[in-house]
Amino acid sequence: MAEFKEVMRQAQRMCRSFGAACNGCKLHWFDGKTLCLLSGTPETWHDSEMPDAERIVMDWAAEHPEPRYPTWKEWQDTNFPNNDALMRPCIFESEEYFGCSKLEIECEKCMNKPIPAYIAEKLGIKPIGGGGDA
Q: 90 burial class (0-12, 13-18, 19+ CB within 10 angstroms)?
């Protein structure tokens, strides 16, 4: 089974994507009753139904991946393909923020992390994937 917090996080994304009417939500009406993890009442849930609810949520999450920003390396390779120099992400934020240790190996690790959303937005970098369904 998936971690509870992750299932609930994905359930919230799923719920937001369907809106208040729940039109088309497989949790809203499953085998003649609601399995909604966010608006159902626990008294109506049976232990045997929880694996079904989790499967529905996690299947939806797999079909609707969250958008992510490119890694620093992906962005550099796309925008500056002939550049041999290693870009240092800490030029956009403090070294403390990125946890820099001033070793090249650390910069390489940092290069493979997604660009933080607030920096990407300032640079006009669009997210990869996702369907805008939060």
A: middle
Give the closest residue to 37 by CA, choosing from 54, 22, 20, 24. 54
Q: Are 115 and 70 in contact (CB under 8 A)?
A: yes
The predicted pLDDT at position 64 comes to: 92
Residue 82's beta-bridge partner residues?
A: none
List the one residue out of 94, 95, 92, 99 whose CA is nearest residue 117: 92
**How many whole angstroms separate alpha carbon 90 and alpha carbon 96?**
9
Nearest to 64 by CA among 130, 134, 132: 130
What band does 16 get if pLDDT is binned at 50, 70 and 90? confident
pTM: 0.59
